[in-house]
Amino acid sequence: MSDDEEGETNEQSKYEYSYSVKFIIVGDSSVGKSNILLRFSRNTFDAGHQATLGIEFANKHLIYNNTDYLVQIWDTAGQENFRSVTRAYYKASAVAMVVYDITKEETFEHIQSWLKDCKDLAPKTVLLVLVGNKTDLEEQRVISKERGENLAKENNMMFFETSAKLGSGIEQAFQKSIEAVDQKIRSGYYNLSDSSKHGIKKIVSGNENENGERIIDKKSLSLGKKQKKDDLCC
Ligand SMILES: Nc1nc2c(ncn2[C@@H]2O[C@H](COP(=O)(O)OP(=O)(O)O)[C@@H](O)[C@H]2O)c(=O)[nH]1
Ligand SMILES: [Mg+2]
Known about the structure:
It is built from 7 helices and 8 strands, in the order E-H-E-E-H-E-H-H-E-H-E-H-E-E-H. By secondary structure, it is α/β, with parallel strands linked by helices.
């Protein structure tokens, strides 16, 4: 059995609709992007000081409004060290989580340049989400919650504070983002006849999207670093 076939199932979703939604996570190196991904997808934390955990991709289902959302999250896998996060990374993203570390002033100041990349390189429809991570380090906090909220407001972003270490706020950040996407889908905000542009794809059957392309197993909650991103989205 190949890696791609592992855990495969033909089971149809029992929900009225199924969509895949591409999330990207950007922000300075070491703000906790990979651990946010790890916490959300596997409910674990890596206390190591590696610049990258080598994770590029994870996915997880969230159910909302009788709809099965396959949240597909792309992680920079260390490219942010060189400010070389590519155009391909931003392409067709539905949600961009822009992360800073509440204990590091410069990571907050750099949000503007990450936002500029999002605005230049992501689809116009992208939902922007500001995340202040490492709230467990309250005694080392230098960025107040209010500063985060204000920056988010100025840039029309959703805002969350999280601790990937403790797991607080992570599920909520993804859940609320999906709720906002759900609302936009229902209001006709996205032109889903050309869904590849928006990072949102309607899933027709358990293993195919509307173009007849294979998608990952709908039941599993897997890290897909062996799967090619191109096979999965966009
Ligand atoms: N205290 C604390 N440390 C964290 C948190 N999230 C990540 N870290 C640590 O910060 C470092 C960088 O995390 P990582 O996820 O690799 O950051 P990335 O470079 O943005 O992907 C690692 O040592 C993590 O263990 C958090 O919420 N709280
Ligand atoms: Mg990383």
